[in-house]
Write a structure and sequence with these properties.
single chain; alpha/beta; Rossmann fold; DNA polymerase, domain 1; 2 domains; six-stranded parallel β-sheet; globular
Length: 223
Amino acid sequence: MIKAIIFDLDDLMANSSPLHFEAYEKALKDFGIKAPKIEGELRQKIYGMRIKEIMRLLADEFKMAVDVEELTRHRNAYFMELVNKGVQPMPGLFELVENVKKWGFKRALASSGVTEYVNEVIAQFKLNDFFEAAVTGDDVLNPKPAPDCFLLAAKKLQVDPKHCAVLEDSTNGLIAAKSAKMLAIGVKNSLLECGQDMSMADIVVNRLDEITLEMLNYVIQGS
């Protein structure tokens, strides 16, 4: 029986990838990379990772002899400038929010993003009162695909992980949800260039407002 819903943030609730990649490429250019285009397999690989791990990977990929922490701070400053101008919600977000309230589930947010960013987006979307708990990338040692963020979210909600459903758009996030022994709902992102493997998800939908209470109950009954 599902008692709690745990939401990812990036590209699940917020259309943030364009802002992330613009900030990556601006920062790399400032540090001497003439054509810092992140595309193809590299773009797909970093999707769903935590920022500090992404920056280490990019520094290695572009063979940069830099202080990765300094590069990360530079990138984060660009990113927050973009975020503060406004982030667009993903299709169906607010319809699902209203439904989840009606269904009576507990609600948590579990994001790989830094706390400053997560708080800004939740404030922009006016969802501060919607979530009863929040976990950011600053709160856990091991990022997705480790299950740490989802397990901590369940602990904060005081709900057994087996009674939690996770909404995720990335392969890493779905792996983390299954590792946490939670119901994994994959939400495809038609706005992204890089498709994600959702074969491990218990449910796959095209947008958030396709999720129904009947769908959740059917999967639980069949498991």
